[in-house]
Amino acid sequence: MALGARRSSVYQLILREAGMLIGIGIIAGLGGAIAAATFMRKMLFGVEAWDLPTLTGVAVLLSAAALLASFVPARRAAAVDPVEALRSE
After folding, report:
1. 73-82: which pairs have CB atoms within 8 A and are 24 or more residues apart?
2. CA–CA separation, 33 vs 57, rounded Å?
3. Cβ atoms 85, 2 nearer than 8 A
C-alpha cells in the first residue's frame, strides 16, 4: 500500500495465494481420504469408500473456514496506514 496499491489489490493478492494453498490442500486431502477409505473398505459398514456427499461437504466446509481464516489477515494488511508502515521500517 505504501507503493500505491489499492485495498482491493491487497485483498486479492492475499486471498488468491490462500485460495491456491486451499485448493492444493483439499485435493491432497481428498486423495488421502479416498485412499484410506479404500484400504479400510472391509471395516466400513453401510458407507461407501467414495461417499460423494460426505467428501463434498467436508471439502466445502474446510474451504469456507480456511477462506474466512485468511480474510482476517488480509483485512488487517489492507488497513495498515502506509505512512506508519514506512516510518516503522
Report:
1. 73/14, 74/10, 74/11, 74/14, 74/15, 74/18, 75/11, 77/10, 77/14, 78/1, 78/7, 78/10, 78/11, 80/1, 82/1, 82/2
2. 13
3. yes
Distances (CA, A) of 1 to 12, 17, 27, 78: 13, 17, 33, 8
Give the model confidence (pLDDT) of 72-82 as tens digits.
888 888 877 77
Letter for the amino acid at 23? G
One-letter amino acid for residue 49 of the chain: A
- What's the whole-model pTM score? 0.74
